[in-house]
Description:
Blueprint: H1 3-7, H2 10-38, E1 43-45, H3 54-63, E2 67-74, E3 85-89, E4 95-97, E5 101-107, E6 113-115, H4 124-133, E7 137-144, E8 152-157, E9 160-161, E10 167-169, E11 173-179
Parallel strand pairs: 2-5, 7-11
Antiparallel strand pairs: 1-4, 3-5, 6-10, 8-9, 8-11
Amino acid sequence: MSLKKYLTSRVFFGQVALALVIIAVLGYLFMHWLTFTTDHGHEIAVPDLRKLTEEQVEEKLDELDLDYELLDSVDFRGDYPKFSVVEQDPMPGTKVKVGRKVYIKINSSGFSSVRIPDLIDKTYREAVPTLKALGLEEGTITYVPNLGKDMVLEMRYKGRNLKVGDRVLKASKIDLVLGDGKESYQEEEEVVDSTAAPAQETPTNEQ
Length: 207
């Protein structure tokens, strides 16, 4: 049979059809295998782990076939229990596949301490950002008579005066005593004639 006749014969078209069927079946089986191995379409919403202890996190994620990894502890935050989750990645509600690892950060056991900086003679605008940069908070502001308007004269914590280098816990409120810029000085000058000699009595000669 010539090639031309073969290409137009029923045998050829039958073989082509059979090949297409085989390719379709193999493609279908391959897609199902790929879906099975990658778990495509089977996703889990990441739960909210914040404020849970590490033990509670492990128990909760095990139920969902998820895993976790502790990255680090963070500076103590008063609105979270000690040793509880403060941050997580992925965020709550994110869709992930089975076996996905959730990264967490744990709250520390308490506030760390910081040294009081030298704010004396600094302006109020300079002092407040410095306090905040150290994790401290602005407390009560008191004004006293002084020529230096808004200048820091004293630093106080719970009623006691602070010195540079004293340690307080982070998030502590530091009270500031500032000058009101209204004090006026009255200077009295006493003029003393340093060239004047004390008067001396002239002795009288007694005869």
